[in-house]
Amino acid sequence: MTRFVLLCLLALIATAATKGKGFGPGEQDYGYVTVRDGAHMFWWLFHTTADVADSSERPLIMWLQGGPGGSSCGYGNFEILGPLDLDLNLRNTTWVNDFNVLFVDNPVGTGYSYVENPSLFTTDNKQIAADLLTLMKNFYEQLPQFKKSPFYIYGQSYGGKMAVDFAHLIYKESRLGNIQSNISGVAMGNSWISPVDSVLSWAPFLYQVSLVDDKGEKEILSQAEYTKQVFDQGLYEQATDEWATTEYVILDKTDGVDFYNILTKMERGSSHNKRTIKQQAVDRQTYNKYYSSRAYDLDQLMNGIVKEALGIPRTVHWGSQSGDVFDYLAVDFMKPVIDVVETLLNETNLNVHVYNGNVDLIVDTPGQMVWINKLKWNESADFQTAPRKTIWVNNIMEGYEKQGGKFTMFWINVAGHSVPRDNPAGSRAFLKSMTGF
Ligand SMILES: *[C@@H]1O[C@H](CO)[C@@H](O)[C@H](O)[C@H]1NC(C)=O
Ligand SMILES: *[C@@H]1O[C@H](CO)[C@@H](O)[C@H](O)[C@H]1NC(C)=O
Ligand SMILES: *[C@@H]1O[C@H](CO)[C@@H](O)[C@H](O)[C@H]1NC(C)=O
Ligand SMILES: *[C@@H]1O[C@H](CO)[C@@H](O)[C@H](O)[C@H]1NC(C)=O
């Protein structure tokens, strides 16, 4: 009975963009796209507040949260770069100041997106890319003025892994004339591009920053190497379990380090180290302390006043399928996409950026450098020999950058996993480099 009512309601909403007031300041569009029968994806566009006659004169940026299962419309919007923060105060460093920002609850099952049947959850990166392509076809039909706007995909963490396959697919399809999109670049922020390289980097990184002693380093490294061994045997789902176990060893040896910012001073008995690793990966991407001091809890917000303002059906509970989203991707989770990054560099004219906060642990910078230095494309030698330049903003050192052809790496200082929030000035620098604005 409940299920029947649910399906009826869903049928009503799975069509056009809602022209509503939205939630918070500025012009917004949002809605559901049925990307496959029974699989509904929610998107939320904030038009730029820049002083332009029409918002489409500025680039369109898609923001993809990680997890997999983390909600862009929730975490990305309210906690990282949207116009309002969790106190519902204006965030004066919001990306909406300069760009049109499109948050997508992706893959289906994440945030407000949902599937009517578990068989519709995505199980690999190609399927995720195909769903996003369907979403964008529908988006451009509804808002055709954006077809000419430069389109950039920014993904954080697992969102970066999803971004590279999606960028490749939308580039190919636009060349074939199957979609009109001015796809111009892709950026990977603290991204899960080569999971095994990341896992292997943890023990030495933790030792170097004094979060473990040599005994702790050895134990973490031993479990990390076992994870690689299992992965190399092709036991991909077990490799995901061993990844989680490696994180538990780290929590044990460090007594509960913040995986998303090693500089956080942890509180004794904080719930952080009791939460399951997978749930943390899906939900937080950053430590609870940030939230506990805020006026609103994201879950209450997204299932309360935001949901009401956007006219989301009551039967859709924000975040309720996120654990399933992760579990259905467990076989794909540890697989790298280095070859897709190479393909982007070999076969497209897209700008390809990597930016990484230097105090993140889960996707630490040393682990990123391992796969970046393995990349082979026709200008990789230029990248290797290029000078590394300092990023100065108002005479403050915000990080470093190094460029070879279409590929640029940005080392961002004093930033954890969520760089746009942790270092807005450094983020402006890489956004300007990508977009010219
Ligand atoms: C951001 O806005 C707040 C008030 O909302 C103000 O106190 C602060 O100085 C602003 N920061 C910047 C960098 O403009
Ligand atoms: C893509 O955007 C650039 C920069 O605004 C513009 O010069 C170009 O004409 C656009 N291309 C298409 C196909 O709309
Ligand atoms: C990209 O091109 C380089 C040569 O410049 C080649 O070694 C590499 O295998 C290519 N990668 C892919 C995925 O095609
Ligand atoms: C590398 O290939 C791209 C086209 O894919 C081309 O524009 C660029 O000039 C090439 N660079 C070198 C150094 O050959």
Can you put this structure into words, describing what you see?
The chain is an alpha/beta fold and 437 residues long. It has two domains: 3-194 and 334-435, Rossmann fold (3-Layer(aba) Sandwich), CATH 3.40.50.1820; 195-288, no CATH class. Helices cover 41% and strands 16% of the residues. It is built from 17 helices and eleven strands. It has helices at residues 2-13, 72-81, 125-142, 158-175, 195-208, 214-232, 236-254, 277-283, 289-292, 298-303, 305-310, 322-328, 338-347, 365-372, 380-385, 419-422, 424-435, and strands spanning 28-36, 39-46, 60-64, 100-105, 114-115, 150-156, 182-189, 351-357, 389-393, 396-404, 407-412. Strands 1, 2, 3, 4, 5, 6, 7, 8, 9, 10 and 11 form an eleven-stranded mixed beta sheet that branches. Helix 5 crosses helix 14.
Q: What do the pLDDT scores average to?
A: 92
Low-confidence stretches: 1-15, 285-289
Count up the helices.
17
Bound molecules: 2-acetamido-2-deoxy-beta-D-glucopyranose
Can you write the helix and strand succession as a string?
Answer: HEEEHEEHEHEHHHHHHHHHEHHEEEHH
Please give the domain count. Answer: 2
Radius of gyration (CA) equals: 21 Å
Reconstruct the topology from this structure:
Blueprint lengths: L1 H12 L14 E9 L2 E8 L13 E5 L7 H10 L18 E6 L8 E2 L9 H18 L7 E7 L1 H18 L6 E8 L5 H14 L5 H19 L3 H19 L22 H7 L5 H4 L5 H6 L1 H6 L11 H7 L9 H10 L3 E7 L7 H8 L7 H6 L3 E5 L2 E9 L2 E6 L6 H4 L1 H12 L2
Parallel strand pairs: 3-4, 3-6, 6-7, 7-8, 8-11
Antiparallel strand pairs: 1-2, 2-4, 2-5, 9-10, 10-11
The structure holds 2-acetamido-2-deoxy-beta-D-glucopyranose (4 copies).
The site of one 2-acetamido-2-deoxy-beta-D-glucopyranose has 2 residues, from loops.
